[in-house]
Amino acid sequence: PRLLSQFFFADEKVTRVVAEINGLNAELDPQQYLVLLNQLHLSQAHLLAVLERIMEECIPTQRHSRDYLVKFPEELLVDNLGNHMLFAAECLLAGTFLEVEEMDGVQLRTQARNLLCSLELVRTVLREQSLSQPGSYPEPVRAVLIQFDWLFAEFELRWGPGLGCWGAGACARAEGASQSPPLSSYVSSLVAVKSPEEIYRQQEIVVLFCETVERALRLGYLTQEMIDGYEPLLMFTIPR
Question: Is the domain of 62 the same as that of 110?
Fold first, then answer.
């Protein structure tokens, strides 16, 4: 099926589950409430996955760079990171500052509000487009997708003094704000993101590791079969 058709049905599922949750008394039926919450989580994740595919098809060259993801700790780079971000935005907008300091939460609320409003606009525009011309992406559709993509990326991580910058656009914004206080972001409020120096050191270690393996293969210290089989003794020896 076409992506817009998939989006329409995914959006319908989210809307239906939300309506069921709103009509349920959680205190009287807590078990059903938990079931519906799980359904909502799954349906929202599916909706975001379809939306991601639409953006890749519609605006592949106009999307915000995701190079900043290398700054994130590995444990944050999970499949449902986007769903977690939107849930965090909803909590922030409601005044519930999950996992972040209250002052950071207050600063992030404007970003959260803009992101969620943009998502609602995207849902409305894509629903209408799926019913009228499901095979095309006119300029108004592309515009709202670009806006959502950039707002989403900036909510994940915005650059400020001391955080470094990635990509020409990000560097330009950081240079223009060199005298302003650091910009808040959800991820940087949760954990310490990697600095450019840490990333460069990590890359140097990777290069050194690769060169060591190439030299060992060339000198006959080990075989390709040993590497392909992830022989435990070998995996401990090479870094040393």
Answer: yes
Co-location of 144 and 205 in the same domain? no
pLDDT digits (tens, 9 = 90+) for 83-109: 778 887 887 777 765 566 666 666 778
pTM above 0.90, yes or no: no
The answer to whether the beta carbons of residues 80 and 45 sit under 8 Å apart is yes
Q: Range of 203's domain?
A: 197-237
**For residue 144, what is the enclosing H or E element?**
helix 139-156
Written as six digits, the tokens of 190 are 């949760």
- Same domain for 54 and 96, yes or no, is yes
Residues 137-171 as b or e (16 or more Cβ within 10 Å = b): beeebeebbbbbbbbbbbbbbbbbeebbbbeeebe
Residues 66, 173, single domain; the answer is: yes
Residue 105 backbone phi and psi in degrees, to 5: -60, -40
Residues 213 and 206: their CA atoms lie apart, in Å, by 11
172-199 residue pLDDT tens: 333 333 333 334 466 665 556 666 677 6
Asked if residue 104 lies in contact with residue 181, where contact means CB atoms within 8 angstroms, the answer is no
Buried b (16+ CB within 10 A) or exposed e, 56-86: eebbeeebbeeebeebbeeeeeeeeebbebb
Claim to verify: residue 81 and residue 35 sit in the same structural domain: yes
CB atoms within 10 A of CB 128: 13
Cα gap 67→5, rounded to integer Å: 31
Q: Which two tokens stand for residue 104?
A: 């950071």
Taking the CB of residue 96, how many other CB atoms lie within 10 A of it?
10
Number of domains in the chain: 2
DSSP state letters, 44-80: HHHHHHHHHHHHHHH-TTSSPP-GGGGGS-GGG--TT
